[in-house]
Amino acid sequence: MKNIVVINPTDKLRKFSDLWSPKIIAEINDAYVKLAKLKGEYVWHKHDNEDEMFLIIRGVLKIELRDKVLELQPGELVVIPKGVEHRPVADAEVCVILIEPKSTLSTGDAEDTGDKKSTHGEWI
Amino acid sequence: MKNIVVINPTDKLRKFSDLWSPKIIAEINDAYVKLAKLKGEYVWHKHDNEDEMFLIIRGVLKIELRDKVLELQPGELVVIPKGVEHRPVADAEVCVILIEPKSTLSTGDAEDTGDKKSTHGEWI
């Protein structure tokens, strides 16, 4: 049987420093729970078939949509529905929990851009 | 298009006081994000087909398994895999985020027991 352990996201955050590179910390059914550190502007993208949840651990994350800008404080969450174009922007470093289907690529329908590589994430 | 709004779980927690009665605050693909207030001992149960995630907002939650007891502090999370018998126990009130498939019943394979009613949860 799978080993069942308590996961401390704050501890896991000490294990990496690369930005825009989600790390997998758990799986629930067909979804992964990921951690990411964000700073600066990401690329505009959408996930055609997958809703994506952002839950803020530290920092303030802006998520630009085509018609408005969301601002998320620590402890807050949002679900970006499938097909909705969005661009995360972090003026200072932000630490987030992401929950999304295992099939989700970080850049969605967008190409790699500079240091924003398209990835499913790796386990830490 | 669905209205995309930032969700503040702490604000939502002020909207209810009943224990062991999960409230739905968001949906991601085929899963719901729920909030619950727990105090006391729940019933032993399992979810035959659904993994279930617990993420602690406030308080300390024990989750008894048949072979050990997990203790979760605020900010920590655990995934209880499908088929694994578990019993949440909260010595003092605990506030948690639950993420589980829309099909999940709170008591899993167990019957209603006193004030622990089997529910899919209602939206708040």
Secondary structure layout:
The structure is a homodimer of 124-residue chains.
Chain A: H1 9-13, E1 23-28, E2 31-41, E3 52-58, E4 61-65, E5 69-72, E6 77-80, E7 86-101, E8 122-123
Parallel strand pairs in A: 1-8
Antiparallel strand pairs in A: 1-2, 2-7, 3-6, 3-7, 4-5, 4-7
Overview of this structure, please?
2 copies of one chain form a homodimer. Chain A has 124 residues and is mainly β. Chain A has a single domain, classed as Jelly Rolls (Sandwich). In chain A, 4% of the residues lie in helices and 44% in strands. The first copy, chain A, contains 1 helix and 8 strands. In chain A, strands 1, 2, 3, 4, 5, 6, 7 and 8 form an 8-stranded mixed sheet that branches. The longest helix of chain A is centred in the first third of the chain and has 5 residues. The two termini of chain A are 20 Å apart.
Short description:
Chain A is mainly beta.
N- to C-terminal separation of chain A? 20 Å
What fold name goes in the CATH topology slot of chain A?
Answer: Jelly Rolls
- Architecture of chain A, according to CATH? Sandwich
Average residue pLDDT of chain A: 94
As a percent range, the share of helical residues of chain A equals under 10%
- Identify the CATH homologous superfamily of chain A: Jelly Rolls
Q: Based on DSSP secondary structure assignment, what is the total number of beta strands of chain A?
A: 8
What class do helices, strands and sheet pairing of chain A give? Answer: mainly beta
Largest sheet geometry of chain A: 8 strands, mixed
Number of helices of chain A: 1
Radius of gyration of chain A: 14 Å
**Multimerization state:** homodimer
The percentage of residues in β strands of chain A lies in 35-45%
Query: Which of globular, elongated, flat, extended, rod-shaped describes the shape of chain A?
Result: globular
